[in-house]
Design brief:
Blueprint: H1 5-9, H2 13-25, E1 32-33, H3 34-41, H4 45-57, E2 61-64, E3 70-73, H5 75-88, E4 94-101, E5 105-111, E6 115-121, H6 128-134, H7 145-164, E7 173-177, E8 180-184, E9 189-190, H8 199-215, E10 228-231, E11 234-237, H9 251-270, H10 276-284
Antiparallel strand pairs: 1-3, 2-3, 4-5, 5-6, 6-8, 7-8, 9-10, 10-11
Bound molecules: adenosine-5'-triphosphate (ATP) and magnesium ion.
The site of magnesium ion has 4 residues, from loops.
């Protein structure tokens, strides 16, 4: 389910209060008991149940009755809290349509000073366990690991964009709240969706951006044709939450893998003859 500006506008102040209170109580409870929630918001049981019913319908909360009646936020509920904060602060003024949906995020178009992209990080959407093994920054104990992991993922992506912009062509970072990163909207297409007339130049442009990022202390670590966009100014590298610094113990292997993945893509699709090892040596300078 996607969020719409309409759903957010129609939220009753009591529903917002319940979302905020649930978030707070989820620091100590993975499922918040109904009675605790009711006492914390200060509504009658009937009022609490009525508002929860409406939030359930909107897909912003979930509930379970075993081992006790408890409620928790969904990704949609958590995204909503972030969007409410961003709009209160004036970082965004209007929410637009969904523009991309990845394994662990949903991306919306929105308005701020101009057109922006909102990336809502959803880490642990499918299975938290499998994510835990592949992303090593989910270390801290939390009653609600997906909230912690999604917020950390957004923080990491925002940090990379801040370090890289504008020396490397990445979306310019504008703001962050909870698990949501607000960044420049790239008016272009994903590399894997287009056939370019000058593949050699595009590959050289990607490798140039990789070299600049390395010089700025950032290795992408998930580079592929899916995370490269093309706009009027050339290539733009996107999707940075898993970046690592060059002094990471596996930095050499990870950088080599990034370069190999992108070079092999150009060889497979366009028949470009390039040796990943030579390109890697060039990137390292
Ligand atoms: N700044 C942006 N401007 C325009 N479109 C964007 C922007 N950022 C992302 N997108 C679109 O949304 C899609 C998903 O974004 P992104 O690759 O960052 O996340 P992801 O693929 O979900 O990440 P993960 O690796 O966790 O699955 C992109 O492929 C792209 O089409
Ligand atoms: Mg991606």
């Amino acid at each position: 389910m996607a969020i719409s500006a309409e759903t957010i506008r129609q939220l009753h102040p009591y529903e917002k209060r319940i979302l905020q209170t649930l978030e707070h109580l989820m620091r100590t409870h993975s499922w918040v008991p109904l009675d605790l929630l009711r006492r914390s918001v200060g509504f009658s049981e009937a009022e609490t149940r009525y508002r929860l019913g409406s939030l359930l319908e909107k897909g912003m909360v979930r509930y379970d009755v075993v081992p006790y009646e408890g409620y928790c936020l969904t990704f949609l509920g958590y995204d909503t809290l972030a969007l409410l904060s961003l709009s209160r602060k004036g970082t965004i003024t209007a929410l637009g349509p969904l523009v991309g949906e990845g394994k662990e995020s949903v991306v919306y178009e929105a308005l701020a000073i101009g057109r922006v992209a909102l990336k809502c990080h959803h880490v642990g959407q499918r299975s938290f366990q499998s994510v835990r093994s592949s992303r090593d920054y989910i270390g801290e104990k939390s009653h609600c690991p997906w909230i912690f992991a999604s917020r950390t993922s957004a923080e990491r992506e925002f940090e990379a964009l801040t370090r890289l912009s504008p020396r490397v062509r990445v979306p310019f970072p504008i703001g962050r709240n909870r698990n949501v990163v607000v960044m420049e909207y790239i008016d272009g297409r994903n590399l894997h969706r287009v056939t370019v007339p000058d593949p050699g130049d595009v590959l050289a442009d990607v490798l140039d951006q990789v070299a600049r990022a390395l010089a700025a202390g950032v290795i992408h670590a998930d580079l592929s044709e899916f995370n490269v966009m093309l706009d009027a100014g050339g290539v733009v590298l996107i999707d940075w939450p898993q970046w690592i610094p060059p002094d990471h113990p596996n930095a050499d292997q990870i950088l080599a893998h990034d370069v190999e993945t992108i070079v092999r893509y150009f060889t497979r699709k366009y028949g470009i003859r390039a040796d990943p090892r030579e390109e890697l040596a060039w990137v390292r300078g």
